[in-house]
Amino acid sequence: MVVAGVVDPNAARVRAMFTRIARRYDIMNTIMTGGRHHAWRRLAAGAVVGAPPGPVLDLATGTGDLALAVRAVRPSSMVVGVDFSEGMLSQARPKLARRRETRVPLLAADALALPFRDRVFAAVTSAFVVRNLVDLARGLAEMRRVTMPGGLVVTLDITRPRVPGWDRVFGIYFHRIVPIIGTLVVGDRAAYTYLPESVERFASPPGLADAMRRAGLRDVRYRRFGFGTIALHVGVVAYRPGDVDSFAAPSAD
Ligand SMILES: C[S@@+](CC[C@H](N)C(=O)[O-])C[C@H]1O[C@@H](n2cnc3c(N)ncnc32)[C@H](O)[C@@H]1O
C-alpha cells in the first residue's frame, strides 16, 4: 500500500523493515524485555489521564498495544491509531477485534504529514517511535499541531542508561545479544541491529526534552524507568493568541 507523503528513502526503508518484522514484533518485544514492555506502555497511558476530554491519537501505533493501554485508562475517549506500515496495522486489527474494541479506528498515514486538522486531539501518544522518525522536529511539530491547547504530547522510548558499569552491561546486551535473539525469533538480524543503533544515534532524554520545547511544547518533563533504559516525556500544548477568544463566554453587552 502506498501512503501519501512517504517519499524519503530512509523513511521507506524504516517502513519496509517494520512490515518485514510485523508478524513476530510482539513476541520479540516480550522476549527482549522480559515482558516489561506492557508495563512501560501502561505508564505512558497513565500520563494522558490528565489530558482534557476528547479523542487521543496514538502515533505510529504499530500492533496497537499503546492504543489499547490508553483506552483502558480513558474508556470514554476514542483512540485513533496511525501507522505508515500496513503490515503492522494488519497485526493490530485482529488484536482489536479479539478484544471487541470498536473505538480504535486505524489509519495508514505518515507521522510527518498527518491527515488531521489542527488541534483535534486531547493528547498524542507514541511508544518506541520518535527515534525512528527521519525528521524529529517535523514529527514533534505535527504532534503539537494536531493537539488542542492544554492537551498533552507523550513519548516513550528506549534510552542508554547513565550508570557506569550498568551502561556497559546494557550495551553488550543490546548490541550483541539482541541481534542474535532477533535472528532466532524473527529471522531478521538487520532489524535488530538497527534497533540498538537507532537508540545510540538518538537524542538523550534532556536532548529530546529540548527538541520538544523547540517544537513549542511547554512544561516538558521526563522520567526514566526500566533501570534507566526507558524515558517517558510529557509536554503540554500551550494556548496561543486567538485560542482564548474561542473559549470565552459570550459578552454580556
Ligand atoms: C518500534 S514500532 C512501535 C509500535 C508501537 N507504537 C508500539 O508501542 O509497539 C515503530 C512504529 O513506527 C512506525 N513508523 C515509523 N515512522 C513512521 C512514520 N513516519 N509515520 C508513521 N509510522 C511510522 C513503524 O511502522 C512502526 O510500526
**Secondary-structure content class:** alpha/beta
Helical element count?
10
**In angstroms, what is the radius of gyration?**
18 Å
Report mean pLDDT, rounded to a whole number: 93
- Strand content range: 15-25%
The strand order across the widest sheet is: 3-2-1-4-5-7-6
CATH topology: Rossmann fold
The total domain count is: 1
CATH class: Alpha Beta
Helix content: 40-55%
Head-to-tail CA distance between termini: 56 Å
Structure ligands: S-adenosylmethionine
Q: Supply the CATH superfamily name.
A: Vaccinia Virus protein VP39
Q: Which word captures the global form?
A: globular
SSE series: HHHEHEHEEHEHHHEEH
Write down how many β-strands occur, each being a DSSP E stretch of 2 or more residues.
7
Q: Sheet with the most strands?
A: 7 strands, mixed
- Poorly predicted runs are 248-253
Please give the CATH architecture.
Answer: 3-Layer(aba) Sandwich
Features:
253 residues; Rossmann fold; seven-stranded mixed sheet; 10 helices; 43% helix; globular; disordered C terminus
Q: Would you write up a description of this structure?
A:
- The protein is an alpha/beta fold and about 250 residues long.
- It has one domain (about 10-240): Vaccinia Virus protein VP39 (Rossmann fold), CATH 3.40.50.150.
- Helices cover about 45% and strands about 20% of the residues.
- It has 10 helices and 7 strands.
- It has a 7-stranded mixed β-sheet with strand order 3-2-1-4-5-7-6, sandwiched between helices.
- Helix 2 packs antiparallel against helix 7, helix 3 packs across helix 4 (about 65-75) and helix 7 (about 165-185) runs antiparallel to helix 8.
- It is globular.
- S-adenosylmethionine (SAM) binds near residues 15, 83, 110 and 132.
